[in-house]
Amino acid sequence: MIPTRLLRVLRALCLTLISLTVLSLGLRGPLGYAQEATKTDFIIEVNKPGNRDVPIAIPKPTGGSAMVDTVWEVVRHDLEMSGYFKVLNPDAFIEPASAGLEPGTFKFEDWDVPDAVVLGKTKVESVGDKVRAEVWVYDVPGRRKLGAKAFTGDPNQARRMGHRIADEIILQVTGEPGIFNTRFAVVTQRSGNKEIALVDVDGEGFTSITQNGSINLQPAWSKDGAKIAFTSYRSGNPDIYIADLARGRTTRLSARPGVNIGAAWHPAGDRLAVTLSSNGSGDTDLFMLEAETGRNLGQLTNASGIDVSPAFSPDGGQVAFASERSGGVQIYVMSASGGDARRVTFNGGHNTDPAWSPKGDKIAYVSRDGVFDVFTVGTDGKGAVRITQGQGDNEDPTWSPDGRYLAFSSTRSGGNHIWMSTADGRHQVQSTKGKGGYSNPSWSPRLSW
């Protein structure tokens, strides 16, 4: 009888030979991953239907820094959250401790044994008062390096270093960087009140933005990541405020009589679309306000009933919003300068909370049918796709800056928490955990930490 370990090695070698044959023919590899050895092709074709999780080996970083364990944990968790990888159990790794990071300093055959398709080798070491990290990414069946990069950071930024490494691995494997160098602005009830806070995509790194003991809602990041607009009842009325993150100060933008809610930043950053009821009709309409002064730049809607929840297209030329002008609440799109609106949702009688994909092709929204669920639809009103179903209430969708993911609040795990999903709904994972509800997520742009 042939030993099990030898069988695994033989099978891996056979797969490698098949893979090399496929490469020479310019076809797809045996595991269904793109493995062409050209600079512009990658192992994972992003958002391609039917993609399977790619087995990836992430051995423990070398280098001896005190940050090693934290960095390793963060990288592995980020890659699992990404929805692209099956992170392999390190108990199956047979590579000797003397192996290096660079080509020629280790044996690819050692990584055939655990059936790795991608290998991410890292090193974390102290250099003076800084920490330096290296990551080398390899295509195991193709026997080739995909890329390598080095980072430096402060010793107290282990988690941030891990996020940067994970993003680089995702870049080398998919051709697009990961989204772990971003944050969520959220509404949290950890203190018992509804306050605005920031958390990393993995739910860690909690940072308070408001601590006023009132009700604070609907945070919205500016395009440059420098400011967050939100609604607060701190003065007794729902008014709109802007938190300047760099300066650490908060100013009130709009305190008009009635409702001041739902601020959305124009991509240029110089103005915001907001929902006001100050026209005296009792309805709410959309207005454009100057970001610096709050000056009214013009009324966008004037239909009967409510118009709420503005969301700009990536180029700033159009606005999606929710309106009850047709009876039930539906999603409409109009020019950012005003004018006629066209309806884009037709299924269900209550559709709200639009969020425009950064790619410009889809709008996420919430539909109510007994419970609340997240859907996406093309900007032409076609191709509606259900993202959530049978998993509690799911609301407040927000897109990642690359349009590959959605985040939303969900009650599926008990209480409100932030969940993240691939744009097609295939892979969904919980972000925030612990006590205190989390809702109203707004996804930041990529941040320079």
Q: Main attributes?
A:
449 residues; mainly beta; Neuraminidase; five-stranded mixed β-sheet; 39% strand
Could you please describe the fold and organization of this structure?
With 449 residues, the protein is mainly beta. 13% of the residues lie in helices and 39% in strands. The chain folds into 2 domains: 4-174, 3-Layer(aba) Sandwich (Rossmann fold); 183-443, 6 Propeller (Neuraminidase). It has 4 helices and 29 strands. A hairpin with a 6-residue loop joins strand 10 (227-232) and strand 11. Helix 2 packs across helix 4 (158-174). The protein starts with a helix and ends in a 6-residue tail after the last strand. Mean pLDDT is 90; it is low at 1-40.
The biggest sheet amounts to: 5 strands, mixed
Number of strands: 29
Structural classification: mainly beta
The number of helical runs is 4
- What is the total domain count? 2
Overall body shape: elongated
Radius of gyration: 24 Å
Question: Percent range for helical residues?
Answer: 10-25%
Strand order of the largest sheet: 2-1-3-4-5
